[in-house]
Amino acid sequence: MKYNSFAIIFLLSLVFNFTHGAQRIFKFAMEATYPPFEMVDEHGNIEGFDIDIARLICNDMHVKCEFVNQPFDSLIPNLNIGKFNAIISAMNITKERACVVDFSIPYYANGVSFALPKRNNFSNAQAWFIGKSIGVQQGTLLEQFLRNTYGKISTIKAYASIQSAFLDIEAKRLDAILGDAPIMTQWVKLKGDDEYVTIEYNIIDSTYVINGYGIALKKGNIQDLNQINFAIKKLQNNGEIIKIAKRYFK
Amino acid sequence: MDLNELKYYAPLVLNGVFITIALMVCSLVMGLLLSSVLTALSFLKFKPLNFIIWLYTFIIRGTPLLVQIFLIYYGSAQFECIRNSFLWHFLKSGFGCTVIALSLNSSGYCVVLFRGLVKSIPQGEFDACLSLGMSKIQMIYSVILSRLIRIAIPSYSNEVAIILKSTSLASTITIMDLMGVTKFLISATYATLPCLFLAGCIYLLINFLIIKLYSLSLKKIYTLRI
To answer: What are B114-132's pLDDT values in tens digits?
Structure first.
């Protein structure tokens, strides 16, 4: 009996030590081929705007951050089977997504633009879209928008990574790409301004409102959601998010 | 996914099925032509040619289909000379690239299969033909070929099933085949499991129809005197 109670105390103290000593690990998932939001640098580390924000949120939550790289269209299914704790991947808050995951308050928002060769003279008119091939990232709000609005008159090509779309526009398989403005701007800058341009685009259809990027959590994870919302509010109030944005979206 | 959504997406799915079947049929026809030519060439007993065919099957069978598709789709676009040549008409579209990759792939496997089948025909039959005074062309056309078709069809059904399933890789290069449509539906509805299950069932159904068609044609061919 005496030995038993010793053993129990010993085991309990071990458990206590472990939980006390090690920080909880919090896994964020993203699709890291989306510079400057998330990308893999030359050392193989995931870096970017979202990562910096996730790190600050983790600091605030007193958890240890880990990052997981996944294809964009598999992020939500894998979140829901519990492969990671949250998604931060320049993911717009939409009605459809909010049906299956819980979103934090938006931490950032920006417009969308077309990137296209200068000679393709973009115009907003429906006539411009006839017979055009337009690239977009698979599984995004923009893919839904393009397919449902222009799917009948133009060819919509969806890519698992936006980088493949850039390859295809250089190969002249695409006439234009629709995507988040900072990504398009950065790519055009990289290519030199003389061949390609970006054109800001406003989606008027109210079905596809850009609500801003949110952090997605599994439904019902109220505690983490509240902590993340609290952290985002703090980062917005102390200007940290604007500071990071300035660094990445010059 | 409710009934309204299903009605809305049904034409999209049907279109996807159509593209999947078109991919399969085009690749099978091209693959069959290519592999027949290669098999015939390999019996010419010309050493360098045999080596080239061996190397071809070695490379095709030794590399993943996905790598081949990516190489053909993204690789071909890198060269200005290809972009300006007539080949670009096929390589420009993802459909053309997939058909090229799948038919190359299919022919790589079929050459090996067909060679084995030709070799399995007993030497006695060749001798019999020649002793009856048939010319080589006559022998191949009226005896060997009909014999070959009968023994090839059961083992070729493997190839058909594999090509059908391989067409799903086309969705990685922006083709809206059945798998591409499924991916779109998943991102539109987030009903991952039902969508994938539906896609699986449709693939199974297509395969079932092919098997039925096969057994019918087998019956026809076995009772037919060619």
So the answer is: 999 999 988 888 888 889 9
Domains and CATH numbers, chain B: 3-223 (1.10.3720.10)
Give the span between the Cα atoms of A78 and A243, in whole angstroms: 31
**B172 in contact with A, Cβ within 8 Å:** yes
Rg of chain B over CA atoms, in angstroms? 21
Domains observed in chain A: 2-109+211-248 (3.40.190.10), 112-208 (3.40.190.10)
Contact (CB<8Å) A167/B74? yes
**Residues A48, A37: Cα–Cα separation, whole Å:** 5
Residue B190 has pLDDT above 90, yes or no: no
Q: How many CB pairs lie under 8 A apart between chains A and B?
A: 48
Task: Inspect the interface and report whether the beta carbons of A73 and B78 lie closer than 8 Å.
Answer: no
With CB atoms and an 8 Å threshold, state whether B78 touches A140. no
Q: Give the distance from CA A109 to its chain's centroid.
A: 11
A127 close to A206: Cβ distance less than 8 angstroms? no
Q: What is the ipTM of this complex?
A: 0.78
d(CA B130, CA B148): 18
